[in-house]
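Appendix B. Chain record.
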Amino acid sequence: MLPVHFLTIVLNGDPFIRYHLEVFRQLPFPWHWHVVEGVAEQVRDSSWCAQRGGRVPQDLHRDGRSSDGTSEYLDRIAAEEPGRVSVYRKPPGVFWQGKVEMVTAPLAAMTEECLLWQVDADELWTAEQIARARRMFLDSPSRTAALYLCHFFVGPSLVLDRLDQYGNYRAYEWLRSWRYRPGDYWHSHVPPRLVRPQPDGSENDLGAANPFLHEETAAGGLVFQHFAYATREQVAFKEVYYGYDGAVERWEALQAAGRSVGNGGLPLRDFFPWVTDAATVARAEHAQVEPLARTDAEGTWGFVPPARGASTAPAVALLRNSGPAVRRRTLAPGEPPFPTDLIRSVGLFLLDGVGAVLRASGVLRELRRALPLARITVFATPDAEAALALCPYVNQRVTLPPLKGRAPDDALVAAVRQEIGERFNGAFDLTINPVRGEDAGFANRLMQDTGAPLRLGCRVGRPVRGYYADAFLTHVATTPAGLLGALAAGEPDPTAEVWTSPAGERAAAALLAEGVPARWRCAVGLAAAAGAGNLPELCRRLAARGDTALILVGEEAAKGAAARIAGEAGAACVSAVGRLGFDGLCALLRRCDLFVGSGAPAEDIAGAARLPMVGTGPAHGDPTAEAMESAIAGWLADRAY
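Structure tokens predicted for this chain:
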């Protein structure tokens, strides 16, 4: 069932404390809201406030409780919802001994496994977001917690717009949901650490054990709105309680400057001296954020339900240009996919030639099946252009120069990185590199250069030519199927396929009509650089069987060898060398029963077509014609006609 227990600690939470109950009432599953009200003494985990000069004067509270109407509001809703809203307080005039005591107070009432959700008074979520997060926990029983990003408000219509700066540090913010079991307890409140005692006496920090990452929750639109510095009253409270001297005056200066900020960004540290990083301020409309709380012409706050999905539209965008992942998840078989409805643009990097494209053909098919409305762009080398032109799953093709084996500081590498960064910065919600091997690192680096928030690739596990390939990824898997499992429900099938065209089919059919009918068709790949080797003898032996047609394929330079083999093999042999385009070659090989020999792209196409392959040459032990014929005969004998 997984009920949700919300936990809020509050002192003077008006107006935002009034937002949450109406959202909770929309939820179609059991929930309970635990509200702990009152002053936290600046001791223990809250002692840092006193060290900054923070204090708790009498006018900040009323007998240790709220003085802004929050207490009366909580009394009213607790009476309205006696089974779903609980309020916890100290006796009048008594302070809580730090915030850990406050968040601990409701735990005794949580007697069942649940999703424990910390909701500060000024942190606004939608019912749709809460329901989706709960569904993610239900679908993934091994997940122990969830990390989120937020739209951090520093004024009624001003938000912070940079990641890993004040308000959105992925290293420790914002851990807000935990899979709670009775017996779990709070180790600290800032940062929030919920721990589970283990039988051996150790502790398991649930937030660090197996959480949903920022990238995964943002992919599902789970970015909340944090109205931390939205009102003058909030800032006045923080000036006193946290010791932020001059905060109100500086906040008012920020509001004045923010009215004319335009599309640029204001450095937050120019206004808040306790901020020392590079956080910048933008207007909410420029950040594409639709505030859930707004003021009217008289300055009165009200709450506006968003158009469906409107509040989550910039969720993935917040992660763009995020740099190396703070945490990296290894995708496990059988894990349900993370939400993909906000993934509208995908970049796939296949930089290892036409073979990489053909081997990834099944990945492209499954990717299109998982993301039917997404725009898919493939980055590949020039020799892959003919194959991609036939692919029905791709919206855009981008050709990059071959970079295999080049060092990170190579001039061409630097030029390509610069071009990718300029042309495709912010263009993708998701990038994937399904290629395994030593040259994966460069493709992974390019994926980060695009600024894509989600970057999936196969694990390399070690530095290669100056790149630690995994460092550029947010998610890794051991196989391409493991990558697809993050995006599609069910068992993904990355089995390769071969694309062709009507013209290619006609050309292949016409060429095959030149030969004699036969029970089997054996494609023979000729590579001029490798030489014919034992292939002429093998072809004579196969032609003598009387049931096997030989189809010679290969590059233009192999025409001479093809002519000699065809002359020796007689009518059983048809040469397609130099006679077909890529689409015709694909159609031809799809009609064959096996492949022997070598040579690109025929060998790659045959592999994608899943033809049985008989190896030749030194790489396969230099088998004799007799040995190859024996292997082929054995395979044909076992195959039904």
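Further analysis of this model is presented in Appendix C.
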